[in-house]
Structure formats: C-alpha cells, structure tokens
Amino acid sequence: MTMLTGVKNWILLLATVGTLSSCKLFKKKPESSSATGWNYNDKNQGGFFVAKASDLKTGPGLVFVQGGTFPMGATQEDVMGDWNNVPRRVTVNSFLMDKTEVANVHYREYLYWVANVFGDPNPEVVESAKPDTLVWRSELAYNEPYVEYYFRHPSFNYYPVVGVTWRQAYDFCVWRGDRVNQLELIKKGYQNKSAVKTDMGGGGMENFHTKSYLMGEYTGVPGKPKKNPLKDAQGKPRTTVQFEDGILFPEYRLPTEAEWEYAALAQIAENPQPRKSEKKRGEELIANKNIYSWKNDGYDNLRGTRRGTWQGAFLGNFKRGNGDYMGVAGGLNDRAAVPAPVTSFIPNAFGLYNMSGNVSEWTGDVYRPMTGFDMDDLNPYRGNVFKKVDPAKSQGSLRDSLGRIYMVNEKDSALRNRRNYQRSYAINHLDGDTATSVRYVYQYGVTTLVSDKSRVLKGGSWMDMPYWLSPGSRRFLEEDVSSSTIGFRCAMTHFGASEGKGRKTGNFFPSRRQKR
Q1: I need a surface site. Which of 36, 217, 320, 353 has the fewest CB within 10 A?
Q2: What is the pLDDT along the chain (516 residues), one digit of tens a residue?
Q3: Helix/strand/coil for 265
Q4: Distance between CA 363 and CA 352 in Å, rounded?
C-alpha cells in the first residue's frame, strides 16, 4: 500500500507541475525594450523580433584571428629598393580567415556548379571561370605534364589552385558565401532541398544569391522550419529569413593587405591570452617582429630547431638558391619542387598554413607604391568603390543574368554634402599622385606598371627566395593576369567579441554602491 500511495502521489505531483506549466507560471518572461518598455518577440505587443545576441559562427574552412595593433610594413632590409612598405602602426579588428589556401578540389567544385547553372544560357561564364593551366608552360622547361594534370588529376586534389586571376578569386568568394548561406537555410528548414535542383535548372538567373534573397528578389523553394521557427507580427511562423535573425553568414571575400599581413605574423604567439578560467588578461606586449610567419625560434628562422623529427627541417616551401627547389636526393630540404599540399609545413600561431611560401596570395587591396601614412589606421584598405542598387532597374527585376543585384557607382554630385566620403571611386584617394581622376596619372606600360587594376600580392611562393616570404614584403600584378606561383584564400568579417566566442567586448566592472 505504501508503494502504491507513493506512485499515486508522484503522478499527482507530475499532473500539478503540468497544470502549473500550462498556466505559464514557469514561462520565461519576454525581454522588453529598455527604450519603450514594450516586449520583444510578443505578438500581443507588435511582434518585433529580436534574435538572441551571440557571436558570429565560424564558417566552413575558417579560423578565428584575434585582432590588435601591429607595425605594418617591412622591418628587414629593403634589398629590392622598392620603398613601398615603410612600417606604420595600425589596428586590425578581429576577423575570420581560411586555414589553408583554396585547393584544386575546391575550385573544381566551383566550376561544377557554374557549369550546371550557367552552362546552357551563358557558356562564356563557364569559360571565364576556368583557371589558366597554361601558366605552367615555359619555352625552355618541360612543364607540359603540369599543364595537363596539376588542376584535374586526383593526386593534386589538395594542392593550392593556381592560374587564377584576382577577378576569378573574387567571384569564387562570392559564390562560396552564397553556397554556405543556402545550405544554412536548408539545414534550418527555411529552404527546401529541392531549391538546389531549381538553381541547377533555372537558366542562370534563378540561383541563390544572398543579397537577392535578403532583398526579396529570390524566393527559391521555401521550407517548413519545425524547431523554434521565426514568427511574424501575428505570431505565425515565417518562411523567410532576415539578416537580423542571425542565421546567415557575412560574405566570404579576399582578405585586405593589412588583415593578411597581420594574420601571417601571428604575434599572439608572443603574447598569449590566459585560459577562460583565469580572471587575468595577457600582457600587452609587442615582441620583436617575426621575420616569417612562424615564431622566431631559430638561428635563421627557416629551419626547425626543436630536437626530433623537425630539427633542421625547412618550415616552408621556397627556393633556397638558383636551381635548388627541394634539396638533394636522400636529404630533400622542403620535399616540394612545385606547390605542396595546402596542409603541409608548420602552421603559425593562428593555425594558418603556408602564410610564408608555397604560393603567393591575392589580397583585396589595389597596389600603390606610396601608401600607408595617409590611410586610416584602423582596418586600412585601398580599393573601395561605393555602390548602390541601380535605380534604373527598380521598375523590373533588380537581378542581372547571373542572379545578382544590379549595382551602380554612387554619383559624386550626390555625395558632395557628406562628411565621411565625397567620391564613390576611392581607389585613387590620397595615393600620392598630383591628379585625382579615375585614371592613374602615369601612363601605364610606358612610365609605370601600376594601374587601378594592380592588386597586392603577399607571402612568397615555391619559386621565390626567402626575402619574399616575409609578411611585410609586397608585390603587385594586374587583376586579370594569373601565374603558376599565385593562389588565394578567403576571409570573413567577424561580428562579436574581439577575443572570440565566449568573451565580452569591452571591460566590465562589478557595480558598487557609492558610500554616503
């Protein structure tokens, strides 16, 4: 009887808890506005939706790079006499960056998608996306096997893609961001899986593009989210997502020159932050600047010094001297005559591979020899062209034949009264020229090789001597030209705490009552 009574009492308790729950006694009180007092996410008070504040998730392939201040520019002897990298102090905000260079298999995935979406209506789009495999060809070298096999043979799947122009790398970044966001919507149930088939058979224009989706120009095939669906003002589940919902990622893009150099130096190795369980913070130190992307711990900084397997081994893929690309048989120094796999060699303190050597990499910046001191000291970047949605297309579809939103440069006449920027084409702003027109003041190809299409290269390659492996060194190439020594990696802007997920932005102190 006692056991039976206990069971009855337990059932009664559960029933009571269920009743109390149904009476909303345990329901969490909705967050209210500190400005108006109205509840957020409450259909009875307007239904204004506010997503829970959280740091940006890390996108596929990316690692977190904690920002900070550093002396940008070369600190070693300028043996080339370029005088184009004079040190100056700048700050780079925290961001996300590819762990490795973009590999052949990743770029082939891109070509596969482009061919299936645009192949029939726009075959020229497919052709323009293909890398130039002829970059391997040389009049006095037998490199024809690389022309045929380097990009497509499975043996080279995870080698860095080369022969890609800056423009092609830019387009890859846009495509990658769209694919990541589309998959995120499918996972959350806001797009049906069949949307992918619609993209593939949509004739080019009907493919997912993040900006088009956010502006309501792309619908796709809406799904039915089941787990914690977003709701509209009437409390009904929403089938579309807004950027404010915190589901979509920012765009993938090429890193700026400042971001790339900062990430390569990885000075966090000299000033590590404490464990999360510790209340103290790391010391605000700026140690001697690394010569290369790995920590200074060797007599020449090119070889590993720790006892064991890595002692004496080259830490990057580069050319040691004329005719010496990998050393002597039986004692190869870097074991790679041409590019090596993207995860080869030692990563730096941020976990980034091959920031010195393997292939040089495109950055987002337009090259100018005299640049730096006139640029902003927070997130410096040269290359802005400010745009807006093309009003001429507003009567019809805002998308072009590739499914992207029509954009047009803002007019200078409309910016005349602004205080922050007065020209939409900012590439030439304070670049040291006597003219401020769109065209570079010198005659390209006659008195200079620098133009508005010149983009900054960083990092050095398998064909370069050690000088070019230093993060501070810089070169340039026209954005529509490619090489067997140039690849790229993507970056993404970080939203949230500067020290990463789980931490706060700014300093917070315990509140104390003031003594009277």
Answers
A1: 36
A2: 455 555 555 555 555 545 544 544 455 677 888 898 888 888 888 888 888 777 778 899 999 999 999 999 887 777 787 778 888 999 999 999 999 999 999 999 999 999 999 877 788 999 999 999 999 999 999 999 999 999 999 999 999 999 999 999 999 999 999 999 999 999 999 998 887 877 776 666 778 999 999 999 888 888 888 788 888 878 888 889 999 999 999 999 999 999 999 999 998 887 766 655 555 666 676 666 778 888 765 545 776 656 555 667 788 999 998 999 998 998 888 899 999 999 999 899 999 999 999 999 999 999 998 766 678 999 999 999 999 998 776 566 788 888 889 999 999 999 999 999 999 999 988 887 655 444 445 556 666 789 999 999 999 999 999 999 999 999 999 999 999 999 999 999 998 888 877 777 877 777 655 444
A3: helix
A4: 16
Q: How many residues does the chain have?
A: 516
The structural architecture, per CATH, of the domain 56-190+241-382+455-502 is: Alpha-Beta Complex (3.90)
Nearest to 212 by CA among 390, 396, 394, 405: 405
Six token digits for residue 353: 């591979």
360 close to 468: Cβ distance less than 8 angstroms: yes
Tell me if residue 221 falls in helix, strand or coil: coil
Phi, psi of 129 (to 5 degrees): -85, -20
Q: Which residues contact residue 67 at a Cβ distance below 8 angstroms, ignoring those fewer than 6 apart?
A: 91, 92, 93, 94, 95, 262, 498
Q: Are 326 and 310 in contact (CB under 8 A)?
A: no
Question: Is the alpha carbon torsion for 388, 392, 398, 404 positive or negative?
Answer: negative
d(CA 292, CA 264): 8
Q: Which residues of 43-67 are buried (b: 16+ CB within 10 A; e: fewer)?
A: eebebebeeeeebbeebebbebbbb
Dist CA 136 CA 146 (whole Å): 6
Long-range contacts of 276-283 (CB under 8 A, 24+ apart): 276/502, 276/503
Q: Give the C-alpha separation, 64 to 95, whole Å.
A: 6
Helical residues (DSSP H) of 43-142, grouped into ranges: 104-118, 123-129
Contacts of 79 (CB under 8 A, 6+ apart): 467
End-to-end, the C-alpha distance of the chain in Å comes to 64
Domains of the chain by residue range: 18-50, 56-190+241-382+455-502
> How far apart, in Å, are the Cα atoms of 310 and each of 323, 336, 353, 394?
24, 16, 16, 61
Which of 299, 311, 296 has the alpha carbon at shortest distance from 266?
296
* Residue 318 contacts residue 462 (beta carbons within 8 Å): yes
Cα–Cα distance, 474 to 457 (Å, whole number): 6
Hey, what amino acid is at 488?
F
Specify the 3-state DSSP secondary structure of 417: coil
Degrees to nearest 5, angle at CA 295 with 294 and 301: 75
